[in-house]
Amino acid sequence: MINRKRSTAVLRASLAAALIGLGLGAAVMEVHADLAPREIQRAVLRDQFDPLWKAHVAAVDQALANHDVSAAVGAWHDAYGAALASRGWEGMIAVGDAFLRIGVEAGTRNGSRPNARQAYLNALIRAHRDGSPDGMRRAAEAFAALGDHAVATQCLRVADELAARRKRT
User: Fold this and answer.
1) Residues 59, 78: contact at Cβ < 8 Å?
2) Whether the predicted pLDDT of 49 surpasses 80
3) Mean pLDDT of all residues in the chain?
4) Quick one: fold of 49-168?
5) Which residues fall within 8 angstroms of residue 130, CB to CB, at 6 or more apart?
6) Which of 32, 53, 55, 116 could form a disulfide with 83 if both were Cys (CB 3.0 to 4.6 A apart)?
7) What span, in angstroms and rounded, lies between the C-alpha atoms of 1 and 12?
8) pTM of whole model > 0.85?
9) What is the average per-residue pLDDT within 86-93?
10) How far apart are CA 151 and CA 140, in angstroms?
11) Are 103 and 137 in contact (CB under 8 A)?
12) Tens digits of per-residue pLDDT, 91-119?
């Protein structure tokens, strides 16, 4: 009688564990199914807009080579829009760097810092979303160049955490 009760209890516990496992598995599959279209959409946007922001950043550099700050700012606005649309962190770093170059050419380096900082913040958020230690490290370099060492230090800490998480998986 005791063995039968014990067997029944073990069977019930096993069934409960199996059902919980199936439920968790289904939940994970549902989350992955929900995220997959977003990942695909991001990849499509990057394929579409990365060449655009790169071309616009090249136009910024060409305008700066010609000492045409006005044309550089116009090209920068186009680059920023394309980088926003691409959904990646790389473009935001590039447009932040480009705006700093515009500031140097215009003789208003400090005036260019807020726009560059905004682009770097966008890059930081996107790199974190993507789980990219490289993106977080690049954002750290950008903030350090602006003199924002507290944010740079935080970026490096998060980059290390992301890298450690990748090693575990």
Assistant:
1) yes
2) no
3) 83
4) 1.25.40
5) 88, 89
6) 53
7) 16
8) no
9) 94
10) 7
11) no
12) 999 999 999 999 999 999 889 999 999 99
Dihedral, CA of residue 129, residue 135, residue 140 and residue 142, to nearest 10: -110
For residues 73 and 99, the answer to whether their CB atoms sit within 8 Å is no
Stretch 57-72: mean pLDDT = 98
The DSSP letter of residue 67 is: T
The structural domains of the chain, with segments of one domain joined by +, span 49-168
Q: In one letter, which amino acid is 50?
A: D
Average pLDDT of the segment spanning 133-157: 95
pLDDT for 16 equals 44
- Record the tokens describing residue 6, joined without a space: 């014990």
- The burial class, CB within 10 Å (0-12 / 13-18 / 19+), for 80 is buried
Residue with tokens 């003789």: 107
Amino acid 91 reads G
Structure tokens at 70: 């006005």
